[in-house]
Design brief:
The chain has 2 domains: 1-44; 45-94. Helices cover 89% and strands 0% of the residues. It is built from 3 helices and no strands. It is rod-shaped.
């Protein structure tokens, strides 16, 4: 909580609760607010966390692309061999 908001709250509560009770209330309120704020910010991702996650995803994507290229080359070679065998078979079938 900002300092000006704290002072305003204190000034509003002071006539109704008294000086000491207002201070205790505001201290308790600020501590509670900070605890809630820290508990919620603990789960947020930082810029470093996001960079690590992106790097891991890029690594996984690179591996999958490499695997896809290998699979594509295997299929192409297999089809070329089958096509050559078919052409040779047709040539000798005469």
């Amino acid at each position: 909580m900002s300092t000006t908001a704290t002072i305003r709250l204190y000034e509003m509560l002071k006539p109704k609760l008294g000086e000491q009770e207002s201070r205790v209330f505001i201290q308790h309120f600020e501590e509670s607010f900070e605890e809630q704020f820290e508990s919620k910010t603990h789960d947020l991702a930082t810029k470093g966390d996001l960079k690590v996650a992106v790097a891991e995803l890029r690594g996984e994507i690179d591996v999958k692309i490499a695997q896809s290229k290998v699979d594509l080359i295997k299929w192409m070679v297999g089809l070329w061999i089958a096509q050559i065998a078919a052409i040779i078979g047709l040539y000798f079938a005469r």
